[in-house]
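During the second half of the funding period, the structural biology subgroup turned its attention to how the target accommodates small molecules. The most pressing case was adenosine-5'-[phenylalaninyl-phosphate], which had performed well in the primary screen but for which no bound structure existed. We therefore specified the complex as follows and requested a full 3D prediction, including the ligand pose.
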Amino acid sequence: MQERFDAMLGTATAAIAAAEDERALRDLEVKYLGKKGEVTALMAGMRDVAPADRPAFGQKVNALRDEVTAAIQARRGALEEAELARLCEDPTFDATLPVAAFGGSPRVGALHPLTVVSRHIEDVFRAMGFLILDYPEVETEFFNFTGLNIPPEHPARDMQDTFWLNDGNLLRTHTSTGQVRAMREYGAPLRAIFPGRVFRYESVDASHEHTFHQCEGLMVDKSVSVAQLIHSMKTLLSSIFERDVTIRLRPGYFPFVEPGFELDIQCQVCGGRGCSVCKHSGWVELLPCGLVHPNVLRHGGLDPNEWEGWAFGLGLSRLVMMKYQIEDIRHLLGGDLRFLAQFRQG
Ligand code: FA5
């Protein structure tokens, strides 16, 4: 019996060592280790062996199978190395080409959920005649604070902890920076949204990031109303959630609006029962808004006796969390591809 096994091992290892490519190696793998392979057939012959000899027989077949497997692996490694060496010598080989060029399937990327929702918002507002504007992330103190009726020493500056830069500029703490910029750039009447990234020096938890996204909206016209504002917000939120959502308005203080409101949305992650996202309150603060303060219109170069405006500052990151039931804001910018792959469409 031992001679028979040795002979088979000898033939198999010689053939494996001589295999010139992966295809030949795979044929040998099937020939010896496949379901109907020669080593597998030996195991099937166990029933013809005397019961007392079966354990020894089984061990020998296993050892033979292990040796053949090891020989195949070694040869496969050698073939791969040789192929790599050949490619490295080949001046036409481009290591940056997608895997598909070599017959594999390329990893398909996905739009980030923030991009998906941001584009959705842009579509809704574009249909209502709004411009989509993009303003700098590094801002002057004027556009972030003073122009928004928050002069130096005003306590409201402490409402948003700020990353100050050495040159006196700052990382914008909100997208409201676009309000005065847009008024100066386009005058009135004006309808615009400015989605973008904002930064705050604050501690991070499930619903707070130091870097997150907002989308500001601004409408300036001869006569505007809170009813219009609420209608636009309802239109937006129903479109995003593809159903009627429950919202509530509370009075809110922001120096750049008067009156100011906080629009909360019932937590879509827990359905209002309470979870880490809504801090167990059932509501998520999503969208402060209000009528533009006359001083802000003035800073924008507009006469408050002639023009009125409303504005909102949507917490885009929180909206994305609500829409996709993401329980922790840190997933959004965490860069984990397993998280992002879940948003692949099609
Ligand atoms: C503002 O940023 C105002 N500029 C909004 C505004 C615009 C008011 C126009 C009136 C008129 P606030 O600091 O509350 O307000 O932030 C707005 C939204 O951003 C919040 O409702 C919340 O959804 C989101 N947000 C605030 N801080 C964070 C944070 N650390 N992480 C994630 N989202 C946040």
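Two results from this model are relevant to the next phase. Residues 113-343 form a domain with the BirA Bifunctional Protein; domain 2 fold (CATH 3.30.930.10). Residues 160, 174, 176, 200, 202, 208-209, 212, 214, 216, 254, 257, 260, 285-290, 311-313, 315, 317-318, 329 surround adenosine-5'-[phenylalaninyl-phosphate] (CB under 6 Å).
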